[in-house]
Specification:
This protein is mainly α. Among the domains are: 21-90; 143-191. It has seven helices and no strands. The chain has helices spanning 2-20, 22-93, 104-116, 125-134, 144-159, 164-171, 175-187. Helix 2 packs across helix 7 (175-187), helix 5 (144-159) crosses helix 7 (175-187) and helix 6 (164-171) packs across helix 7. The longest helix has 72 residues, at 22-93. The radius of gyration is 42 Å and the shape is rod-shaped. It starts with a helix and ends with a helix. Residues 116-123 and 137-142 have low confidence and may be disordered.
Length: 191
């Protein structure tokens, strides 16, 4: 039995020395390294595919956001145009106070003039402009000066060459509002 153990020990020692040999080690470790390399390549390919899918998703979301912001700007522009038109209609239908008549003939003239400017009948634009220039305080809201200040600020920053994002940040207003004010300026509207 001792001989058996001695032979077994020599075989184990020989096997250990054989495993330390570079050629033997390469034969054992190469398949394992190749398998691990293939797994890592697969993981990298999957990660790249996920990144590409994420890029595509982001591109789609940016396009949707761009369309939505364009729609918001369009709606705001339409809303501003409608408000401007409604303001013009209201201002054109305002009846200016007439001086108290001194006699019956003059009272009849005043009534006839007021009847010609009833709210159902539009007042010519020139007359409305003349009335507005004669009474500069008429038709202007309390916050109108704030709006004019914003408009002037936005235009001056735009003239300096700043982007819409920079203007919005500097003026502390939304990008859509900046775009709307610049669009109004391009059309030639003044606040």
């Amino acid at each position: 039995m001792e001989w058996f153990l001695i032979i077994l020990g020599v075989l184990c020692l020989g096997l250990g020395l054989l495993m330390e040999h570079p050629m033997f080690r390469e034969r054992i470790t190469r398949p394992w390294v190749e398998r691990e390399w293939a797994r890592e390549e697969t993981r990298v390919k999957q990660a790249r595919q996920q990144v590409e899918k994420a890029r595509e998703d982001v591109a789609v979301l940016l396009e949707e956001l761009d369309r939505a912001s364009d729609k918001v700007v369009e709606l705001m522009t339409n809303w501003a145009e409608q408000a401007h038109a409604q303001t013009a209609r209201v201002q054109s239908t305002q009846v200016s106070p007439a001086p108290a008549p001194t006699d019956q003939a003059q009272a009849a003239k005043v009534q006839k003039a007021q009847a010609a400017q009833l709210p159902g009948k539009p007042v010519p634009i020139e007359a409305a402009k003349r009335r507005r220039s004669e009474n500069p305080g008429t038709g202007q809201g309390k916050g109108n000066h704030v709006l004019k200040d914003k408009y002037k600020t936005v235009l001056s920053l735009a003239e300096q060459g700043l982007s819409i994002d920079d203007i919005a940040q500097s003026a502390q207003i939304g990008k859509g509002e900046v775009q709307l004010l610049l669009d109004l300026q391009k059309r030639g509207d003044k606040l």
